[in-house]
Amino acid sequence: MLLLVAGGADGATPDSAPAASNVPGAQTPSIHADGRVTFTLEAPKAGTVELAGGDGLGQGPFPMTRQGKGAWSVTIPAPVPGFHYYWFMLDGVRVNDPGSRTYFGYSQETSGIEIPQPGADFYAIRSVPHGQVREHWYLSSVTGEWRRALVYTPAGYDDHPTQRYPLLLLQHGMGEDESGWTRQGKAQFILDNLIAAHKAVPMIVVMDRGYADPPGAAPFALSDNLGLAAIRTAFTRFEAVVMEDLLPSIDRSYRTIPDQAHRAMAGLSMGGMQTLFIALRHLDTFAYIASLSGPVSGGSDANQSFGASLGARFDVARAYDGAFADPAGFNARVKLLWMGAGSAESPRLRTSIEGAVEALHAAGVQVVYYQSPGTAHEWQTWRNDLNDLAPRLFR
Amino acid sequence: MLLLVAGGADGATPDSAPAASNVPGAQTPSIHADGRVTFTLEAPKAGTVELAGGDGLGQGPFPMTRQGKGAWSVTIPAPVPGFHYYWFMLDGVRVNDPGSRTYFGYSQETSGIEIPQPGADFYAIRSVPHGQVREHWYLSSVTGEWRRALVYTPAGYDDHPTQRYPLLLLQHGMGEDESGWTRQGKAQFILDNLIAAHKAVPMIVVMDRGYADPPGAAPFALSDNLGLAAIRTAFTRFEAVVMEDLLPSIDRSYRTIPDQAHRAMAGLSMGGMQTLFIALRHLDTFAYIASLSGPVSGGSDANQSFGASLGARFDVARAYDGAFADPAGFNARVKLLWMGAGSAESPRLRTSIEGAVEALHAAGVQVVYYQSPGTAHEWQTWRNDLNDLAPRLFR
User: Fold this and answer.
1) Nearest 5°: CA angle at B196, between B195 and B202?
2) Distances (CA, A) of B85 to B23, B55, B102, B113, B180
3) Residue A7 has pLDDT above 80, yes or no
4) By the number of CB atoms within 10 A of the CB, which of A125, A224, B146, B341 ranks highest?
5) A389 pLDDT more than 70
6) How do residues B22-50 score in pLDDT, each as one tens digit?
7) Is B109 within 8 Å of A102 when comparing Cβ atoms?
8) Cα–Cα distance between A363 and B251 in angstroms, integer?
9) Which of B128-137, B191-200, B293-302 has the lowest mean pLDDT?
10) Tens digits of per-residue pLDDT, A93-138?
11) pLDDT at B4
12) Do B205 and B191 touch, CB atoms closer than 8 A?
């Protein structure tokens, strides 16, 4: 342990700093000047402690080693920049890091770490006019429950009380909730910066909880074995919440422009699936449609499993109940169809998305494809996506 | 274990329901019809697991027992109604319950449970017009950092763009942050309900992070041994943030009425100390001053420890740099001085507050004292407090 005591490899050192995602005062996780990250946990009686996490943290789990009286520690190679979920396995029990804020992911509160990307300030809070993120509560006629959405209003919204704005409905991924896009994604700062630079038009962004399970039912959970019919049932219920409860409630409370030309829907991963499912059934409502790392449903066989459907050839005429069957008609109604994926995402997902893009393109459907460079199925992809997408909306 | 298998004592049973503070789908903590609560944790390799928590959960820690393959469980006697922080001690390591949302308390993310109070709906979300809670980011000239405050705007704020509103600055307690009053306290629903019933006037409520530590410094932590001089230094820095950064920023962004008659400051526990410290030095800014379970500083001896100061006689002439030395003048300037405590709080704290109230009253200073019935140093006290206080403001 001499090397450790001599400094540099583990713990807080002059060349390291606490992560921005830490709770105030927590010294670890700490990020070293060379990008390596040190994690610690006090657990004097533990037999084994490991560090594990989501895509982007690196090839874990990482065994931690006991330092002295009971502090366990590990320093991992520099993760890719961005936001990564993580947790500790404490004698096999998944626990959070008391040094980290928690973020809703994996259907529970989960630690997260923000790894800075040198030179990237598009998602930083900067000295530009800031919009506001507001809690919006509404009673759902579909679920019978009060639901919370978050609503971004652009800078100047209160100063121009007669101005009306277009609306982007922006959805999170599986296991996350309505807080993901602002807490993990920093969507409000991305939009503040784009709008201040006149790269995007001022818009209202609505972020809702993408679940509409019947009260008391087990929460919807996407898995390879789940049938497309079950997914359709769940998404149809969320579609009803969006169309019958959420959008009317937003239109009553905010100065939207409630026509098709001023409505967009986008979502990441499961939210991308929901976007394609819902928006393609409501082309009279949404003129802009974007799927960020969203698995694409190629056929229309309700008996197929979700996992199997990812490998299916994209059938332009039949997919999404024939929404693309008339490419010229589709192009005339839809101002933007956008699909994206990170270049480091799984081949299976990229193939699903890129196969659809190629088939649509070949059939004459106008579609924009954006590839986030070097990023996987993680928030840095979706931050890059939003930064590419938002400037294309409502032009 | 026959009794347990026979049902009723542990686990999800027909007579129990998941707590409203659980993450969606989590079956425990579950609250039984008779008010008892069952907690569980999966920890197959653990040697000991205990349940512990804040005031109001009951006389813990509660040992948990292993059920079958590795689920640990305990059912505790009915806690008092309200919100209670809790956690598990897993072989001595404090960990959160994956079944619970987390709430910022004890300077970290902490599990919490909401115990319903039969018949009490003053803090429930109801079918009344709702205000909004908004994120407000501002750059502090004092700390050099971007800070987040939360701002409640009352129902109708956007519909009446020329109407201006009084402002209540409402602060959290030690170890909590700006999210406490809305997430733990449900302040937005208390105000929605009071305003809808015309019991309180529509007002803007600003909730800030009550710390202003220099970047990189150890976070301020209140303790019995801390000297009053150190507390004064920390509060003076937060005072500067409030007066120089926060209030001017709010006045620029929201339609306040920026005069003394339309400004209130209130806070709970440490926030109550801050309220008395700051507002009593700025009687030209605040006409309404409320300390909710806030320890009162009786003397003015900077060498005294915080703990010792709680037992000191309240010296009306000298306390708070002589703010009360001229009772008639004070009464003429200040429209409301309000102090509150729960009837089940520690005698030490209640004596500190009630001693001050008695001394002030005897000296002719007008002061309202409110005692929350049967509640301790916990959020149910502060919900009751706000419900009593808000109707007295700006009348």
Assistant:
1) 30
2) 15, 8, 9, 6, 12
3) no
4) B341
5) yes
6) 999 999 999 999 999 999 999 999 999 99
7) yes
8) 56
9) B293-302
10) 999 999 999 999 999 999 999 999 999 999 999 999 999 999 999 9
11) 32
12) yes
- Contact (Cβ atoms closer than 8 angstroms) between residue B25 and residue B99: no
Q: Tokens for B99?
A: 């079944």
pLDDT digits (tens, 9 = 90+) for B273-286: 999 999 999 999 99
Q: Tell me, what's the pLDDT at A152? A: 98
- How many CB atoms are closer than 10 A to CB A15? 13
- Asked if residue A196 lies in contact with residue A128, where contact means CB atoms within 8 angstroms, the answer is yes
A130-164: buried (b, 16+ CB within 10 Å) or exposed (e) per residue? bbbbbbbbbebebbeeebbbbbbbbbebbeeeeee
How many Å separate Cα A35 from the centre of its chain?
24
Q: Model ipTM?
A: 0.94
Which residues of chain A lie closer than 8 angstroms to B127, CB-CB? 139
Q: In residues, how long is chain B?
A: 395
**Angle at CA of residue A256, ends B150 and A131, nearest 5°:** 30
- Scan residues 289-348 of A and list those with Cβ closer than 8 Å to B: none
- Interface contact A44-B92, CB threshold 8 A: yes
> B376: how many CB neighbours lie within 10 A of its CB?
21
Cα B244 from Cα B277, distance rounded (Å): 16
Partners of residue B82 on adjacent β-strands: B115
What's the gap between Cα B175 and its chain centre?
A: 10
pTM > 0.90: yes
pLDDT for A308 equals 86
**Bridge partners, residue A149, by sequence:** A136
In this predicted structure, the answer to whether residue A11 has a pLDDT above a threshold of 60 is: no
Neighbouring CB atoms inside 10 A of B28's CB total 22
Does residue B220 contact residue B271 with C-beta atoms inside 8 Å?
no
How many helical (H) and strand (E) elements, i.e. helices and strands, does chain B have? 11, 19
What are the strands, taking DSSP E only, across B189-232?
A: 204-207
**What is the per-residue pLDDT for B6?**
31
The verdict on a CB contact (< 8 Å) between B109 and A23 is: yes
Contacts 24+ apart (CB under 8 A), B273-278: B273/B231, B273/B235, B273/B297, B274/B171, B274/B210, B274/B235, B274/B238, B274/B239, B275/B171, B276/B320, B277/B232, B277/B235, B277/B239, B277/B320, B278/B235, B278/B238, B278/B239, B278/B242, B278/B243
Q: What pLDDT score does A219 carry?
A: 87
Residues of B in contact with A161 (CB under 8 A): 158, 161
H-run or E-run covering A67: strand A65-67
For the cut 90, the answer to whether the pLDDT of residue B139 exceeds it is yes
Contact A172, A267 (CB under 8 A): yes
The gap from C-alpha B125 to its chain's centroid, in whole angstroms, comes to 19
B135 part of contact set with chain A, CB < 8 Å: yes
For residue B25, the chain A residues in CB contact (below 8 A) are 107, 218-219
Q: Which two tokens stand for residue A10?
A: 């583990």
Q: What is chain A's mean pLDDT, rounded?
A: 93
Interface of B with A in 223-242 (CB under 8 A): none
Q: Does A160 touch chain B (CB under 8 A)?
A: no
SS3 for B72? strand
Burial tier of A383 (Cβ tally within 10 Å: 0-12, 13-18, 19+)? buried
